[in-house]
Amino acid sequence: MLTRVYVNNFKCMVNFELKLSALNLLLGANGSGKSTLFEALRKVRTFALSGLKAPQVFSAEELTKWQISDVQSFELELEQDSEVYRYELAIMFTLNSETTVAHERLWCNGSPLLRYEHGEVQLYRDDFTPDVSYPIAAAQSLLTLIPLRRDNQKLDRFKQLIDKLLIVQIFPPSMKRAPSEGENFWLNSDSSNFVSWYRYLSQNQGLIQQLSIELKEVIEGFSHFAFRALGPDRHTLVVHMVADQKRTTEYSFHELSDGQCVLIVLYTLLLAARFENYTLCIDEPENFLALAEIQPWLTALYDQCQEENTQALLISHHPRIINDLANDIGVWFERRYDGPVRVRPVAVEEGGISIAQLIERGWLYDD
Fold this sequence. Notes:
alpha+beta, eight-stranded antiparallel sheet, six-stranded mixed sheet
């Protein structure tokens, strides 16, 4: 579970800190920093796991405009069982347009596993005793360069945790443009490679069977999925819909409505969190859906977060979602003029005007 995020000198985030629980609803006006948080998480995750060099992930254009510092800092804290991991990353932008790693550190329960700073890396074993150290001018994450051994399993466990951060805004037009060119372990931020990601998930038969059961409840006529080969390792996802009691009709994924595509992705995400332990970060899950379509999914997500150790971060402007969830799990993002984003919990006395109406009228935290 992701328990804490710290970001400094990244766009509108200056000394930004947010502590998280199992289910979190991020609220605020457009431009208040909600999607910026997701972008920061996505960049840190990509850098820590992909092997890309710092200039391929981070840009000096994303430094906070009114700050003079040339260092961008990120911290993530994640918990699993009795272990608390803290990952610290600082990126430096120099006058000659070089982008380098200023420091990269990883801790477990307050003890070091990895320390890179001042051009030297120090590694530690799982019992926190010092391992090798050597000079290096790191251009990419040290996490991608350290081989797995029997005495550094904690490093690998952290990488598995951060790998499970799934950050997405579902956009059906992107999903319909191309067939699967193979299996993908990661879902793109716009869900454009959903079919390839579904091919990867289809190895988990329990997940796929449960997904079919869930979709039969929410998409009228849904029967099952199948893949149709288009060439070597090229497939399209086919949806079988019940036409009558004797036959089904095949629809390629790109032939479905936008709302049907969103429902399929949302329930796949829900079950991926249950079966594969993903942390869900979803920007406006209600897009393309009617209230009657999103409400059952929200109820299922809420129950799963309460009962099955699932974690989710949602961004939403939908008044029904706000009224149902904000008073328990809402976090308000706000900026004054062109200043940094600040956050505080949403808390409204019962019996008064609804939270959605307070937001609509600009009365929530109108101080």
